[in-house]
Specification:
The structure is a homodimer of 359-residue chains. With 359 residues, chain A is an alpha/beta fold. In chain A, 40% of the residues lie in helices and 14% in strands. The first copy, chain A, binds a DNA duplex (30 and 30 nucleotides) through helix 2 and helix 4.
DNA sequence: TGAGGCAATGCAATCGATTGCAGAAAATGC
DNA sequence: GCATTTTCTGCAATCGATTGCATTGCCTCA
């Protein structure tokens, strides 16, 4: 295949219009391939005479040469590729994160591999292995589930990694998350200021760092306000369906004659959709009959009915910071790990209203 | 890979640290590297004795060998990687497409590079070049803009490509799109059935295939119903802001005393958000005062106020079909190009109501 | 003028897997 | 029992770029 010419055939024509290699450029510029390599690589351009660099650059341009990331990567053991693992790209909190990360990485010359884990540990491991095969320079793990072996796998393949959105207990890995405690505090503070005294919490799935922190933040903020939690129920996942189930459980709580609470602090916007579903089913109106707060300010919750009061997290900043942390670790593996907490912000909309006067 | 462990199951032990190459496996199994290669590759396993294959497999397992996608790709000129270009991953119609494609591709052993073009031709070309450098086996182009050189670039690098969501005039490239004409027809038919006679169209940006098809579909359906279009305005892009501007233009139309239309067929859901904004600003209510239909049924338009009547497209099927078409072309470049139109479906919600009796 | 120093370039090995070809071994045919 | 296939395995080249080391040429300075 390399050269199937028969003896006597004319010499092969100039590099085919498809693909020029560094050797082709070398021939065209009248220098050795290694010189071409040095001339074309900004980092080593200094090792080459100005004139040669120019001649090589022109030859490369003329031949339409493009580097082969595979060949370079094979030699340097760097693919200039970063992997991003998300549980489910359709969950609207992830696209902004991925997008921000991808944009920053692209500007630094990195390509981005994206994959969905479906929260399935086996699938996650398979994907990490595959990314390792592709020799990704780093991995961004969004919402790694508890008990995941992702970190061990990254260590096994020596892939720098950064956690996004969720932390993992006891692992020395950089993470970019939200200050969940503070965020929930904002929600509770807002409700208290509106006069609510019986406040419930619809918590996230146990074992997930965001759920734990928000749960604890809830108790803490309530205590600070001198109140007792009216009710707490854990959702089984961050889904609309889980929100429905949990909300039903909350409403079916101890007091059957009247709701035991006037407001509910929900651990996440997606759960709120389920909460809205249940309220609608009961003929209740969020805001008017029961104040509801969410978390994330995911896209379009400003458009639902009623617009959701929620805690806005810095989606894009999360992706950016994580990408930066990762690049820092790639450039200098000895970089100390960082645990970045982004400060969230209270967004007041119509799903929270002043508590009715207690009669 | 058929490892579908349940959470809690004991995880298989991690292979020993370090990185084994095919040569290491060869040494361990007492055979030549080329034999290892053949034994490990399912396609060539048959060239090797059963016993040798087993011995090699065990050695590979024991050493924790993983293939190097870079090395293999360099040699075979196939990276087992597919690129997906979207204008903006944050636009909610894309995540379902990307996700479906990624899932199918992952099952076939492909990794997926995702990048955002921001509708910027220069950026798009840069990204395609970069993907070419990474030797992607194929490219999925979601919503390629008119006048893009993407197709030429793919041809230049001989990268099989498939268009998603939008077609491009005059290019012989497979495409998976929606039957936009039919979809708009459903919307018009629905409004006509509700008694509307003065129907306007808020069209998409000129030059974009979806906008053109929907525009034409609108005229066609109206003609079929024996009606004249009440008004038509083009939006400058598929964005909420463009929707606002276009809606204002529609309302400021010829008749200043009364709206010249009782219903508006909008080219896309995102534009509808702008339409809602304007209506709200005028104290008008979608549904009650003016019927509105969208297109795409993007996530969460069922939750906005009022829930949007729209045309549901098959997001996931679009990603899947496109991935399949692409894989077919990769496997057999002579595969005839296909132009797949997916049939959309009318989803009736509260933004459309029976026309008020004309007095 | 010749030794020493330095800068620019060439040489060749290397990264890890694949594959055409050739040789060895085993199976088959006559 | 020998020639001929058919299997199976090994050898070595190859993919395209990078890089440590060797070489060349030029400049400087004694």
């Amino acid at each position: 295949m390399p050269d199937s010419r028969l003896p006597g055939d004319p010499a092969p024509p100039l590099p085919p219009p498809g693909r020029a290699t560094i050797a082709d450029v070398a021939r065209a510029a009248g220098v050795h391939a290694s010189t071409v390599s040095r001339a074309l690589n900004p980092a080593t351009r200094g090792m080459v005479t100005e004139a040669v660099a120019l001649r090589v650059a022109q030859a490369a341009e003329r031949l339409g040469w493009r580097p082969s990331a595979l060949a370079a990567g094979l030699r340097t053991r760097k693919s200039r590729t970063i992997g991003i693992l998300v549980p489910d790209l359709v969950n609207p909190i992830f696209p902004p994160i991925v997008r921000a990360a991808e944009t920053l990485l692209a500007a630094q010359g990195y390509a981005t591999l994206v994959a969905n884990t479906d929260n399935d540990p086996a699938r996650e491991e398979m994907l990490i292995s595959r990314m390792a095969e592709h020799l990704v320079d780093g991995l961004m793990l969004a919402s790694a589930a508890e008990g995941t072996r992702a970190i061990e796998l990254c260590a096994r393949w020596s892939i720098p990694a950064v956690l996004i959105n969720r932390r993992l207990p006891g692992v020395a890995t950089s993470a970019v998350t939200n200050d969940d405690r503070h965020g929930i505090g904002l929600a509770v503070g807002h409700l208290v200021a509106l006069g609510h005294r019986r406040i419930a919490h619809l918590a996230g799935p146990p074992g997930v760092s965001t759920a734990i922190d928000r749960r604890e933040g809830f108790f803490e903020a309530l205590r600070a306000a001198g109140l007792e939690p009216a009710a707490v129920v854990d959702a089984s996942g961050y889904t609309r369906a889980a929100g429905q189930v949990a909300m039903q459980a909350l409403l079916a709580g101890p007091s059957l004659t009247m709701p035991a609470f006037t407001a509910v602090v929900v651990a996440n916007d997606m759960l709120c959709l389920g909460v809205y579903d249940v309220l609608q089913g009961c003929g209740l109106l969020a805001g008017a009959d029961l104040s509801v707060t969410g978390f994330n300010d995911m896209p379009f919750v400003d458009l639902i009915d009623p617009p959701l009061t929620t805690i806005r997290i810095q989606h894009a900043a999360m992706g950016r910071e994580a990408a930066e942390a990762l690049l820092a670790e790639i450039a200098e593996p000895a970089t100390p790990r960082r645990d970045t907490r982004l400060t969230p912000e209270l967004i007041i909309r119509a799903s929270t209203r002043a508590a009715k006067q207690e009669s």
